[in-house]
Amino acid sequence: MFWFLRRGFASLIMLWVIVTLVFMSIHFVPGDPVELLLSQDGGSADPATVQMIREDLGLNRPIVEQYVEKLKGLASFDLGRSMVDDSSVSAEIARRLPRTLELIGLAALISLIIGIPAGIYAALHTGRSFDRVASYLAGFAQGIPVFVLGTLLILVFSQMLKLTSAGGFVAFSQAPGKHMLLLLMPSFSIGIGLAAIVFRITRASTLEVLPLDYVRTARAKGLGDRRIVLHHILRNALIPVITIFALQIGSLLGGTVLVEYVFNWPGLSGMLVSGVNARDYPTVTGVILVISALFIGLNFLVDVLYGLTDPRVRK
Amino acid sequence: MSIAETTSKPGLSISGLNISFRNKDGWTSVVRNLGFDIAPGETVAIVGESGSGKSVTALSVLGLLPQQATRIEGSIRLGDKELLSLSPKDLKALRGNEIAMIFQEPMTSLNPTMCIGEQIAESIIAHRGISKAEAKLEAIRLMEKVHIPSAARRYGEYPHQFSGGMRQRVMIAIALACKPALLIADEPTTALDVTIQAQVLNLIKELQEEEGMAVLFITHDMGVVAEVADRMVVMYRGDVVEEGTTTEIFANARHPYTKALLSAVPQLGSMSGSNDPQPFAIYDINTGLATDAAVLKSTVDMSEILLEVKDLSVRFPVQQTIFGKVTARVHAVENVSLTLARGETLAIVGESGSGKSTTGKLVTGLLHPTAGKVEICGKPMRSDTRQSLSRSVQMIFQDPFSSLNPRLTVGRAITEPLRIHKLATETQRDEIAASLLTRVGLSPNIAKRYPHEFSGGQRQRICVARTLALKPSVIIADEAVSALDVSVKAQVVNLLLELQQEMQLGFIFISHDMAVVERISHRVAVMYLGEIVEIGPRAAIFSNPVHPYTRRLIEAVPVPDPSRRRDRHKITDSEIRSPVRAGDYVVPTRTYREVSPGHLVQEVGPEWAA
Amino acid sequence: MTGTFSKFKSDQIPAYLLALLLIVSLLAPVLPLQDPLLMDTASRFAGPSAQHLFGQDEFGRDILVRLIFAIRNSLIVAFAAAVLAGIFGTALGVLAGYSRGLTEMLAMRFIDIVLCFPPLLLAMLAVTLYGPGPVTLIPVLAIVFVPSFTRVAHASVLSVRSQDYVEAVRSMGASNARVMFSTILPNIAGPLIVQFSFTVAVTVVLESGLSFLGLGVLPPAPSLGLMIGTGRATLAQAPMLLVWPCAALTAMILILNAFCDDLRDRLDPKSSKIRGQ
């Protein structure tokens, strides 16, 4: 049980470091973020307005005080107010986060459901036609960027075949069927590339486990093939898959940003992209903090999974 | 071999067995025309060095060789069942049930993600079709049978929580789960410490008597053969060169290879009466002619002390609280003192965790001691003197495959020390490389080639040549011959002895192999859990071991003489303890008693009582 | 990993294709090509013609020329970022792996922190603070990929330094610098070269993604991501405007990936890792 708590503690420390770094980043910028915000159209900003906004954002106060204020805000889930329309960043994130989570969840599910069985099957039948075709497809799927895949899906399915609209969003409560249909294409765009990675790692690690001594022991015991694959090969082969999957969570989250943009899915990314374009500092840092927290949380989850799979980690 | 009766177990009968492997140029024959029988209750050993085809034979009996890449001809029968014509389904029903196998590497032979008990139980479930709960009870009973302490509690533990010896016991429990007619043991004790080896061999014997099964024992170790086998089959590069009862072959080997193998096997106790090392007699495998071992002149010059180690200790923290307080430490080396004179060989013997290799690294300055000092030729070894002193102390490592940089040619590897110390010109270096290669019995023409082109024995010679480049006075040989085949081992030992004759080198010979140590050393230090428990002249240590650990160690060494088979009831089931201690552990003060001149024994502490 | 799709082709093909890409991008400014920024509003959305093999875009610019310059820009950014990341990441990893102790702890914690930000988001944060464009893009992409080099270098140093031949050189009295540079470094070069090629491939993907969002290369400079982004607007009237850059980007990434796989099979056969990140 101790390993579990220790990992949780480490995750919290990480979160605190991230908060501090993001907080400090604004002070590393050459020039004043407020002036940057106001001078977007080329002209220089009106000093009075700059002063007013600085006052609003609390940028005039001592840095330590701002930091304490920020941490206090975070403790009560307050991420500040948008510089563009003064709306609450937390409220907006709370509204959009579930949609992003939905996307991530389905994409991860698609990748695992396709990647793991295909990887094992290919490894157990190396060199056969399934292995060749699947390896070829995986190489291709891994190479095609998510936004390219998404864009091409729109081109084919909505523009040419007219099967579905080019994207958009309908609340689940209003039209569950339509909601899932609209969710499918973006999740698929992310999931397929990830499935390729999961496939390749599963295949490779299964091939690595196959010749090991304990698999030979299992065969020498006279166990059935099913039991050997499920209890002796799969469980050990999954350990590197979990490791690599954890490393891919970052690109999974990055992928959602692009895909939400492509499919007009009103998750966190629309907020982020418009925030970046408007240089709306509180919005951008808010979204990044939430996604990073999500990232750390998912990694923690993976660690727990890792510990459950590999008894050697549980110390 | 008669047809098995219904009540007794069947025996194994192999005849005309030929095995070939497919490679890119066609088929390579690895076993030719092999035939032998094992009766129920009998033990037959297949003996041979690497590449003899002995393990391949074992795997072929179980049908575990890769099907597409292997061609097997001949006959393997268990009772009246022809194994080579069994369907995959029947073969599966046979494996683990009628024929069981244990392997060499207990560390890797168990599934790391499945608990120990379940790995035993699944075999029972697969063959006997009983419920999970019943299988669990049966598994615990088996764990008790192979003497795993507190079996019920350890049922749910994982392999990484077990020591090597305990894992091998688990493997044996798995093998015995269904009371097989035949047990195949493929080098089951090679990876184990010698005292643990004795226990495992003992266990196999004991269980064989109880179950009346046939045992096929695969090994390269003549000592083990003498200990366990009723009959033996000697294999050399895929052919059977000799076959017969163990007593017969040990007493009167006919084939030159068997003779060579037997002559290269050191016999504990064969050296009594002599104080100096003695080279091995070398048999030529093709002609069967023996070159008698030269009688060596004494090289020891007690007036010149090459190496002095005083109260040396090194400890490593292994566990810390978040606040940096050490809660557990490895006491790898504890209060070690020793000296080495010119021309002398001091052997350091001990099992895993004894600190013998760590001592070697401390002497060469590869590690820094926590306390104590090392002096080489009167100069202290410190981090600032390490580089200059390294000219006097050189080291040979155990694994000849990893101790040569794969990117350097042999010639460059040998002269690397000269380059480091900026000695000699480039042409001189080439000449030195050539002469050193000749000196260690290799052709000077190989200087331009890369290490991967050579065998283990050749690489070890290259390593020896490399240590000689700086003309050192002390060579630390850390298990330098342990990874080599018996015959190659004998040659390298002879080479080291010749070099000592010629250059009056001082050797620290670190080894777990008591028999080789007896051949090569003038004095012996026995280490246990980081401490020297006994040190003295070789003859004194071997003829009059005083410390209980030394006695146990010597008793555990298998004697390559079937007529001197030991009484197995004397072997105790103790594990080697770990040198990891609690953070607040206070090292007890040790005193040494002089038994005879130069023979010191640590006063036996309370842990050795009983 | 064995038997990836690249195995089907002759081993050399990805290397040749990559060489072709590199030569064309390197020589693009001196080749007899049109100005990629030259507009010709009279022939907006014109189809393929003798002068314009792939047709013209919404401003009448030559698509083929723009693709070539876009690939060039993409590779310049990717190589610059990979070189920077490679130098700093390797230095940090080697230092951590060799000196151990506190240095190792600090270096590994540093990369853990960088790894806490999903790469695309870190880049977006930087763009918010420093504004878009290559001057922001290259250092940010470099920082994003420092950890993967550090990890590879660190792990390889650890595995190489545990080899007996490193102990052997030390026992011969070699200085730390000598052990580091003449014994360890040549033996970890393989995995690092492989990592470098992976980083180039991943950077191309990341840069195109940022440009697609309008946060990377700035218009009117040609960039594949940007071309795909703007092509979406004219999806209905000129789908080829979208298809060409998509095909070019995918082809470029596939070539890079295939090259990486071959390189790894050759230089680092033991590694079964995919992409450092």
Please give the structural blueprint.
The complex is a heterotrimer of chains A (315), B (610) and C (277).
Chain A: H1 2-28, H2 33-38, H3 47-57, H4 63-75, H5 89-124, H6 129-143, H7 146-160, H8 176-209, H9 213-220, H10 225-262, H11 268-278, H12 281-309
Helix pairs in contact in A: 1-12, 5-6, 5-8, 5-10, 6-8, 7-8, 7-10, 8-10, 9-10, 10-11, 10-12, 11-12
Chain B: E1 12-23, E2 26-38, E3 43-47, H1 54-61, E4 70-78, E5 81-82, H2 88-94, E6 99-102, H3 116-128, H4 132-145, H5 151-154, H6 164-176, E7 182-186, H7 194-211, E8 214-219, H8 222-228, E9 231-236, E10 239-245, H9 246-251, H10 256-263, E11 282-283, E12 290-291, E13 301-320, E14 326-342, E15 345-349, H11 356-363, E16 371-376, E17 379-380, H12 386-389, E18 393-396, H13 410-420, H14 426-439, H15 456-468, E19 474-478, H16 486-503, E20 506-511, H17 514-520, E21 523-528, E22 531-537, H18 538-543, H19 548-556, E23 580-582, E24 592-596, E25 599-602
Parallel strand pairs in B: 3-8, 3-9, 6-7, 7-8, 15-20, 15-21, 18-19, 19-20
Antiparallel strand pairs in B: 1-2, 1-4, 4-5, 9-10, 11-12, 13-14, 13-16, 14-23, 16-17, 21-22, 22-25, 24-25
Helix pairs in contact in B: 3-4, 3-6, 4-6, 6-7, 7-19, 13-14, 13-15, 14-15, 15-16
Chain C: H1 13-27, H2 63-99, H3 101-116, H4 119-130, H5 134-161, H6 164-171, H7 176-212, H8 224-231, H9 240-267
Membrane topology (chain A): Multi-pass membrane protein
GO molecular function (chain A): dipeptide transmembrane transporter activity
Subcellular location (chain A): Cell membrane
C-alpha Rg of chain B (nearest Å) = 26 Å
Biggest beta sheet attributes of chain B: 8 strands, mixed
Please indicate the count of domains of chain A. 2
Averaged pLDDT of chain A: 82
> What name does the CATH topology of the largest domain in chain A carry?
MetI-like fold
Helicity range of the residues of chain A?
A: over 70%
Q: Distance between termini of chain A?
A: 8 Å
Question: Outline of chain A, from the CA principal axes?
Answer: globular
The CATH architecture assignment of the largest domain in chain A turns out to be Orthogonal Bundle
Which structural class is indicated by helix and strand composition of chain A?
mainly alpha
Instruction: Give the uncertain stretches of chain B in residue-range form.
Output: 1-7
Describe the oligomeric state of these chains in a short phrase.
Answer: heterotrimer
Strand content of chain A: under 5%
Family (chain A): Belongs to the binding-protein-dependent transport system permease family.
GO molecular function (chain A): dipeptide transmembrane transporter activity
Domain ABC transmembrane type-1 (chain A): 97-306
Subcellular location (chain A): Cell membrane
